[in-house]
Amino acid sequence: MRLDRHLTLAVALLVALLLSAVLPTPSSACAEVPNQPMWSLRQSAFELEVTVLSVEEKAGPGPGPGPGPQQTSVWHRVRVDHVVRSDGLKPGDETAVVSKVSELPAGTVGSRGQRGPFRGLNGLPVKGDRARLFANGTTKILQPAFPNGWQTTDHWVSFIAADDEYKSEVTMPFLATLVEQSGIARATLHFAADPEDPTKRDVSSKTAISDAAMIGRGGEVVYMRFNRLCDRDRTALLEPLDRGMPLVAFRTATHAFAYPDDSPHAALNAGFGERFLGTPWRFHHGHSSKTRVLPPTDEAAKHPILAGVRIPAEGIVVPSWLYHVEPLPADCRVLLWGEAIDSERKDAPQKQPVLWVREQPPQELRGGSSPPRLQRIAVTTLGHPGDFEIPEVRLVAAQMIAWANERTHVLDDAKRQAIRDAAFTAPPTR
Question: How far apart are CA 24 and CA 18, in angstroms?
Fold first, then answer.
């Protein structure tokens, strides 16, 4: 028995030696380079929307460092159409963008260079294409983030509708339609789902959300209440936010989670609201009350979220009962206040913020070699389904998403009016 075992080991060793002699040894230069997630691309020095004016392929690596044996550089001449993040470029400027394509040895695997969804070499854009470009370098010569710094001009927002009280599974798809029709972003929808089959919606479910793997392509709109998400879905939702992706939060997002006290994730119950929104769940003024949304101050009215919003001097009465949220951190800027009508909590302050914004460096990216891009967060305690019947409220909601995702430039008076004019009949709450 011992001899047979030794003979087997010897044969296995011989086979391994022969294979190592025949097969090429992959080098780090030929290792597969995965696409960067959106949160990582967003930390590039430049984020631009551009039109490709010309394309030229040149032998040799071109300027700047590159991953592996560079054989070809592809030079794009582009016109800047829109600037999201830049150090010196502005709309109308022209500049060069140099992408690099490697020729890998036969029998090896790896990334051959810049890749995207376009028709050019290795998925690069061709003349006339419009593209969203994440790049580093200088204003004269940009180098796309490797390997997927070239992206389509599509912007994405994920709507997570997982509350069991306010019919977010109805209001969030309605809001997503307005966001898409106005050109702010394309939407993915995610609902409370059956944990055994996440493709099936289940409003009562607290542990799973549908299509969680799609979250993270862009910003998030969160309308959740007392969830206990499984590890997979919790990570899919939280990691992009930890890394600085935009966040818009509605009403019960202050108490999005409710893990048992003995759970290792129980800190999220208050911690999600504290970390991202500035406040955890505290209390409200009672189900028989309503809220009067007060007109903004002159300074607050200048914020892009309130552009074109019309709130009369007497305010706007909404069905949402007022949430108590104070105190808020100093970095929260209040845009709208509300006062309770027929409050059941006469002992509590009758005025509270109902809309605020904050910009903060992502905690997971602090301390790096360069300051991270600030995370934009917009929060409202409104969100009763009846609120969305009020034209100015849904305009505010859409512009919260536009601001957080740096897309306010796509809105004009005609699009704002279309948002106001959209038909919506509120369902009852549960």
Answer: 12
* Domain 34-151 matches domain 156-421 at the CATH topology level: no
Q: pLDDT (tens digit, 9 = 90+) per residue, 287-302?
A: 999 999 999 999 999 9
Average pLDDT over the chain reads 90
Compare 13 and 355 and report the one with higher pLDDT: 355
Q: Please state the pTM of the whole predicted model.
A: 0.90
Q: Considering the domain delimited by 34-151, tell me its CATH architecture.
A: Beta Barrel (2.40)
pLDDT of 95 above 60: yes
- For residue 8, the model assigns a pLDDT of 46
pLDDT tens figures, 256-312: 999 999 999 999 999 999 999 999 999 999 999 999 999 999 999 999 999 999 999
Per-domain residue ranges of the chain: 34-151, 156-421
> What is the fold, at CATH topology level, of the domain defined by 156-421?
Rossmann fold (3.40.50)
